[in-house]
Amino acid sequence: MRPYLLIKTELNSRKGRLVSELELTKKEQEMMDGKESVAAKKAMEILVALGKIFNAKRMVNINSTQISGVSYKNLGDAGVEFLKEFSESGAKVKIPATLNPSGMDLKSWREMGISEKFAKKQNELIKIFEKMGVTASCTCTPYLIGNVPKFQEHISWSESSAVSYANSVLGARTNRESGISALCSAITGVTPEYGYHLDENRTANFLVNVKTKLEKDSDFSALGYIVGKKVKNGVPYFRGIKNASLENLKFLGAAMAASGAVALYYVEGITPEAKKKNMLDENFEEIVIENLDEGYNALNSEVNEIDLVAIGCPHASFEELEQIEKILKGKKVKTKLWIMTSRKIKEIAEKKGLLQKIETSGARVFADTCMVVSPIEGLGFKTVATNSGKAAFYLPSYCGMKVRFGSLEKCINSAVTGKWN
Ligand code: F3S
Asked: pTM of the predicted model, to two decimals?
């Protein structure tokens, strides 16, 4: 029996035939009819189903994808089998596609304590993605290593922190995709045009008046946690933030995407769309932030003995590695200090001698993975300190960790002293 997606009204439209109200071009219809490959047909069917759910009128061409759902910890054997089958049915990406972090450092996994069995499965998954033509960048900050969408460019990204960064800081256009819908877009080169691809959905429905000083990355994380909880999947417009580095914005967006489902935000005078025009809706709700206590309290548990200090959620930039080195200043760590970054940034740091300086302290810089998607709960850790609101939000529920959340300086010092306080 033909799936319902293929029940279509044939009209001599200029662009091709109509599928319900969602109009496909001739090329898209051919993919849907299986003229390209079984995989492209499946991918179009999934995207059309998505488009119909959200009332999209057509597909829009995209120029890049970021695919999440890469860790064997999340996917398990069923995920490996699904992707293998998909790949064997002719799945090949048409546009640049990058991967989110995997469950381990693909080179130094033994040093992390990862088992042979896990590593074998993770490597198998990476090979499947590579066979489809996906670049195994294994980072949640593709925008720091060359996958940088242009202003107003349509893309299909599925890592929530990267989606937030792309929409808000770069002014690109993406919905919060799933790993599979982003992969389908990579194979077809299109995504249904709805949500944040359309101007009318990009206005802010919350005005967030920030009346407190934001000094550290963890302050931006705490603010993000509070606002995400309040606005859920709304679009906040921040007023009162005087300065924010790209790293600060990375932390803010990641925390809002975790505690809520924020995929787009504006900072008055700072983010590109908010600089061009007033992005506030006619009807908006106002939120006033007097202090960050709610965020710091919610993200901290009462624990002082720390097993692991984990930095780099989202993946650390080169500038953050420099900051870490400055705080360490040649001191030795007593507690394990893991810093997560992309392979490319790690290689640059190594070339410049920065990696060696950091690792002399006993800290380790790992690439391709992160503290949440690696199986740290099976590596003997029970307590983690981090400066990331997103990691502090997910580590308890996702990895069973007790968490301390604070500034980068406080985290690094706790690794040096072996205690949080
Ligand atoms: Fe990236 Fe992992 Fe955090 S994917 S945003 S480092 S939870």
From this structure: 0.94
